[in-house]
Specification:
This protein has 305 residues and is mainly alpha-helical. It has 11 helices and 6 strands. It folds into 2 domains: 167 residues, no CATH class; 69 residues, no CATH class. Helix 5 crosses helix 10 and helix 7 packs across helix 8.
Length: 305
């Protein structure tokens, strides 16, 4: 790159008293050019495709680890085509703009959407699940066990955020709004943005003002972990930033209390590592000797079309 730029340079050949000398002429460094335009934050189809990890490590209910390939197909293509623009707009609206924020967000969104295939909870085809108020949207708004909690629940709070009044709406309209969280791209994306910036602890709690967005801005080291799988020893990286964000999105009590667990945590760690590599100019990981490197055993996904 440097040799190419030098070959194109011509300022040394300019001899004009009205123009600055060659040593006074500033040239735009290529690296700075890339860093500056990366601030745009708008993700193209190909960039969103790369946010889908190539592999993940899944921990099952018996504590066994599984190394799995993440495929893409027609469902992935139609999902990204339908929801990508609305998601980009929502990230701008809710301030999910830096590479660290976006990596933390997509660490949840890729897993919650079953690797970019569905905006509904995976067993959401069971209408009885949570009384039909199962997870929907990029961060899966849910009413656990169908307990509407006198209107103080994630769905109703989102409706109010959007200027709707679920308390006076007809039952049919409330159900329509609920289903829209999965079926309307704007609702699927904005419901995630709403939950991302909403404090989940009580106002009197010492953590009352904390949000997933706030945790996403707190840098933490990525720590190398080796696990045994049927495919041999595989590596992934745990990170406290990703853990806190995942807890806030799924089980806020798990942020500071170890007795609560977050489903799919190893998968979220894998997605977070992938997001850091794809979105960050500098995302340092360390090998066993403490040497800075790219994540070991990492494979970057190439855009497929």
């Amino acid at each position: 790159m440097k040799a190419h730029i030098e070959a194109l340079a011509f300022w040394e050949e300019i001899d004009d008293q009205d123009l600055p000398a060659a040593d006074q002429c500033w040239r735009f460094p290529p690296k700075a050019f890339v860093e500056h335009f990366r601030k745009c934050g708008w993700l193209t189809k190909f960039e969103v495709q790369q946010l889908l990890p190539m592999h993940t490590i899944r921990k099952d209910g018996r504590g066994r680890h599984h190394w799995e390939f993440i495929a893409h197909g027609a469902d992935t293509d139609s999902f990204l085509e339908r929801y990508r623009i609305a998601l980009n707009k929502a990230m701008r609206k809710y301030g999910i703009c830096s590479s660290s924020q976006m990596a933390a967000f997509f660490a949840q969104a890729t897993v919650e959407s079953a690797w970019f295939t569905s905006p509904k909870e995976q067993n959401g085809n069971n209408p009885a699940l949570h009384g039909g108020w199962y997870g929907r949207g990029f961060l899966q708004l849910t009413v656990p066990n169908g307990n509407m909690n006198n209107g103080n629940n994630n769905y109703y709070n989102y409706f109010r955020w959007r200027g709707r009044n679920p308390d006076s709406a007809t039952p049919a309209r409330r159900l329509r709004w609920r289903d829209d969280v999965a079926e309307i791209p704007d609702d699927a994306a904005q419901s995630a943005g709403f939950y991302w910036v909403k404090p989940q602890f009580g106002a009197t709690s010492p953590h009352g003002g904390e949000t997933a967005q706030r945790y996403a801005d707190q840098p933490n080291p990525s720590i190398r972990v080796a696990v045994d799988t049927m495919h041999g020893v595989k590596l992934y990286y745990i990170n406290e930033t990703a853990r806190k964000v995942a807890a806030m999105v799924n089980v806020p009590g798990a942020v500071y209390n170890e007795k609560y667990t977050v489903n799919g945590m190893s998968e979220r760690f894998c997605a977070y590592t992938n997001g850091l590599v794809v979105l960050s100019d500098i995302a340092y990981f360390h090998d066993l000797q403490g040497v800075k490197t790219e994540p070991e055993q990492f494979e970057r996904r190439r855009p497929w079309k």
